[in-house]
TrEMBL record:
Entry keyword Lipid biosynthesis: no
Protein name: TetR family transcriptional regulator
Organism: Nocardioides phosphati
Residue spans binding DNA: 46-65
Ranges for domain HTH tetR-type: 22-83
Keyword annotations: DNA-binding
Keyword DNA repair part of the UniProt annotation: no
Amino acid sequence: MPPAVPSRIRDGRNTRWDEHREQRRRLILDAAIAVVSEAPPGAELRLHDVAERVGLVRTVVQRHFGGRLQLTRAVQADVLEQAFALITRPVDLTQTLYAVAHSLVGETVHWVVGNPSLHALVERELGDGEQSELNRATTRYAGFLEQIVAGVAVGRGMTLDASQAASTHLLFVGIAGHVRAAVAYWASEEAHTLDADALERLLTDTIVGMVIRHAATLGLELDPDAPLLGS
């Protein structure tokens, strides 16, 4: 009977294997993102192309992600995490409501314009019966926006109750969905009647108006051109 391997050695081997597996998974994701970025919007993501890009055989890619559908979902989730990181940075509440909204909308439109093929990929429904990664990310983002309003409320000496928090969350689910649909439609146009700056202004004005009306129902009076908090 072979001697038992000390647990610290097994743990060390497992840790190194986990690190190796995660590094390879990251390489495959980066390769897949590069393949999508260089392809025309709407092109299928193929395991063969990804494997070739990263210098692996197809079976290795399958071992880490499964089939094409699973890899596509993983790429969608990774791309969305990177994209949403641009619009989930801490918000300076000494800025005006208009400035905050315009900055978030601008980052969104700028990313879509700069990454048309990645945008087409994350918008794609996979038809596997699961909630889309974009819907999941949008719901999480609504929670982020809800916390901005909650922070403004606390800074003004009030706390949102459960009903107010729920209605605020739903408002931002709707706003995020509105921006998503409008930008996706705009991006799909062959010729833009509105340029990117005009689209950003339109969406910003719409969002600001909706937030001000909702804030009033919470007892918060917001001026779009005044600092949210302080000065």
